[in-house]
Amino acid sequence: MSKAVNVKKVVLAYSGGLDTSVILRWLQTTYGCEVVTFTADLGQSVEDAGAELEAARRKAEQAGVREIFIEDVREMFVREFVFPMFRCNTLYEGQYLLGTSIARPLIAQRQIEIAEATGADAVAHGATGKGNDQVRFELAYYALKPDVRVIAPWREWNLTSRTKLLEFADAHQIQVTRDKRGDAPFSVDANLLHSSSEGKILEDPALPPDEMVFQRTISPEAAPDRATVIEVEFAGGDPVGIDGVKLSPATLLTRLNALGRENGIGRLDLVENRFVGMKSRGVYETPGGTILLAAHRAMESITLDREAGHLKDSLMPRYAEMIYNGFWFSPERRMLQALIDASQASVSGVVRLKLYKGNVTVVGRESPNSLYSTRVVTFEDDQGAYDQVDAQGFIKLNALRLRLGAAAGRRGGTL
C-alpha cells in the first residue's frame, strides 16, 4: 500500500519486542495515524507469561497507545485451530506439524474483529518480505475483510538491518532491553503447540543445531531411562482427557507438552519449501503435538473405515499445504474441513502410549466403536465368521487385468 494513502487508525499485531515496538512508532510518524495494539497470549512463554504481557502493555502505554488489547486466546487457539487441524493428522512435507502456520489465522481474525470494534481502517503486521507469515496474515485479512488496508512495514521502510532498527529506537526513545542490543544467534517463534528456531547459526543445513537452540524439550539422551505410560481419551476425533482426567483443550495440550518435554519428544530439524519460493532450514519442537498425532492415528486405526481413512490420508497433503500457505479461511479449506469432521463421529475411545527417550509407541487402543473383530481376524476357529474359500474368487477377479495384460505382452502387446 502506498504511504500516500490516508490512514486514520491501524490495528497492529504487537508483541512488545524490538521489531513491533519500532513498527508502532514508525506507523505513528510515517502515517500520522492512531495505533491500536493487539497482543495475543498463545502460550508462547513457558515461564512468566503475565510479566511478558504486562511489559508489552507498559511499552504500548509509553508510546501513547490509548486502545490496548491483550487477550488470553490459548483455549480458542487449541479448540478452534489446533484440534481441527489434528483431525486430519496434518503434516506439511511429511514432517512439519505446522505450529507457526496455524497460529497466524487466529491473530489475523482477532485483528480484523478489533478493527471492526474500534473503527480502525487498517491492520499491520511485523512479518518480513522474505517469509511465509506476510502471506498468511494478509490472505486472512482479505478473506475476512476484503476492503481492509494492510500495512507491511518491512516492505515499505528503509530499516534494513538490526543496526538501523536500534538507531531508530534510540532516536525515538524506545526502550530496548540490554540483551536485545546484541545480535541474537537465531530467531524464535513460539506458541502452545510448538517453538520454531530459524536463521543465523541455523542457516547452514549441514551443521547440527546446538543444544542451546532447544527450549521445550530435553535431549532424548538425557531423558529418563524408564518409560512413561499414559492414556489419552478421545471423543469425536478430539482428545478430551489424559489418564482418566477430563481436561480443557489448552490444559490437555499443556500436559502433553510437559510429558513430551520430560521424555525428549518432538524435535525436528527440517529443510522446508516456503510458499514464497525459497528453501528454509528450521528447528522445531512440538512435544505435545507429536504425542497427539500418534494417539489420534491409533484411535482412527480401529474406528475409521478403511476407504474413509485412505481418502483422508490422500487429502492430507493438500490440506496441509492450504494451512502452510495461508489459506485457512479459503472455501476449499472449509470444504475439506467439513469432510474431515464428518469422518470423526466414531473416533472415540482410549489410546495407551509409551513415551521413552524421544519415541512415542502405541501399546494399546480400545473403543466402543471399534471395527476390529477378534472373531473375524483370529487364526483359531472363527465359527464361520469368515469363509476362506471366498478369497479364491476375490483374488481371481483382481488378477484378471494382470493376466490379460501379461497374455497380451507375450503376443507383443504394450502396456
Given as residue ranges, the uncertain stretches (5+ residues, pLDDT < 50) are none
**N-to-C CA distance:** 56 Å
Query: Which structural category fits the helices and strands?
Result: alpha/beta
Given the C-alpha coordinates, what overall shape results? elongated
Q: Determine the CATH topology of the largest domain.
A: Rossmann fold
User: Can you name the CATH architecture of the largest domain?
Assistant: 3-Layer(aba) Sandwich
How much is the radius of gyration in Å? Answer: 26 Å
**Strands side by side in the biggest sheet:** 3-2-1-4-5
Q: Helicity level, as a percent range?
A: 40-55%
What does this structure look like?
α7 (249-262) crosses α8. The protein has helices at residues 18-31, 49-62, 74-86, 104-118, 133-144, 162-171, 249-262, 287-303, 306-325, 331-342, 374-377, 390-410; strands at residues 9-13, 34-41, 68-72, 122-124, 149-151, 187-190, 195-198, 228-235, 238-242, 245-246, 267-273, 279-285, 349-356, 359-366. The longest helix has 21 residues, at 390-410. The chain is elongated and about 85 Å long. It has twelve helices and 14 strands. It is 40% helix and 19% strand. α1 links the parallel β1 and β2 (34-41). It folds into two domains: 9-92 and 100-183, HUPs (Rossmann fold); 190-304 and 343-366, Argininosuccinate synthetase, chain A, domain 2, CATH 3.90.1260.10. The strands form three sheets. A five-stranded parallel beta sheet has the order 3-2-1-4-5, with helices on both faces. The mean pLDDT is 94. It is an alpha/beta fold and 415 residues long.
